[in-house]
Amino acid sequence: ILNVEQSPQSLHVQEGDSTNFTCSFPSSNFYALHWYRWETAKSPEALFVMTLNGDEKKKGRISATLNTKEGYSYLYIKGSQPEDSATYLCALGDDKVIFGPGTSLSVIP
Amino acid sequence: EAQVTQNPRYLITVTGKKLTVTCSQNMNHEYMSWYRQDPGLGLRQIYYSMNVEVTDKGDVPEGYKVSRKEKRNFPLILESPSPNQTSLYFCASTSQGLTHGYTFGSGTRLTVV
User: Fold this and answer.
1) CB contact B100 to A (< 8 Å)
2) B82 touches A at CB < 8 Å
3) Nearest to B51 by CA among B27, B76, B68, B65
4) Does residue B81 contact residue B98 with C-beta atoms inside 8 Å?
5) Do B101 and A99 touch (CB under 8 A)?
6) Are A43 and B56 within 8 A, CB to CB?
7) What is the average pLDDT value for chain B, to the nearest integer?
8) What gap in Å lies between CA A96 and CA A1, rounded to an integer?
9) Is A43 near chain B, with CB under 8 Å?
């Protein structure tokens, strides 16, 4: 079974702080990496899909980078806001899509 | 509106009573999948389908069946539910090649007593 890891497991930051999380995966047989944002009592929503080594994606204050050779992706949030509080999931795969356990972010006003 | 529709949202049933959770998408997506979410275990893939009449097992397929007779529908069938299938279930779809993110349904919270 493909193993996708995320760190840290949880994070508490003050409003206005910038933060980042890591998704780690086996570097062999890479196809695509997804990032999702999952708010409590809602469904996960796609943030980014990255397929190429060196890919960088940005949506507002959130950005992500991908290193397929060393098997990791970073998600960055600049100037965290309380509405950024959620669990952030990464997922990897081609036919089978395997999710990591997620990083739970709490932004304290 | 582009969406994945799951029904029911909540279901309480008894051990052994067959049930079906429906999933339908209106985006003409080729790929559909079912996941279960359990505390501490994250989202685990049950079954997926890459197109009509093409289904395959995910990581936790035991106790479940699926079918893909039409592109838009991908029902999850529990022939004989057991209490260890109590969970939150999500259906998701995306376009072929998985180069776009999933669109998830709203989830079905199933309790088997």
Assistant:
1) yes
2) no
3) B68
4) no
5) no
6) no
7) 95
8) 10
9) yes
pLDDT score recorded for residue A1? 61
Dihedral angle over CA of A20, B98, B100, B110, nearest 10:
-80
For A43, the token pair is 């469904």
- DSSP structure string for A31-54: --EEEEEE-TTS--EEEEEE-STT
Phi then psi dihedrals of residue B85, to 5 deg: -95, 5
Mean pLDDT on B78-89: 97
Cβ–Cβ < 8 Å for A37, A86? yes
Q: Is the dihedral of CA A59, A2, B46, A53 positive or negative?
A: positive
Q: Which chain B residues have a beta carbon less than 8 Å from that of A51?
A: 99
Q: How many residues does chain B have?
A: 113
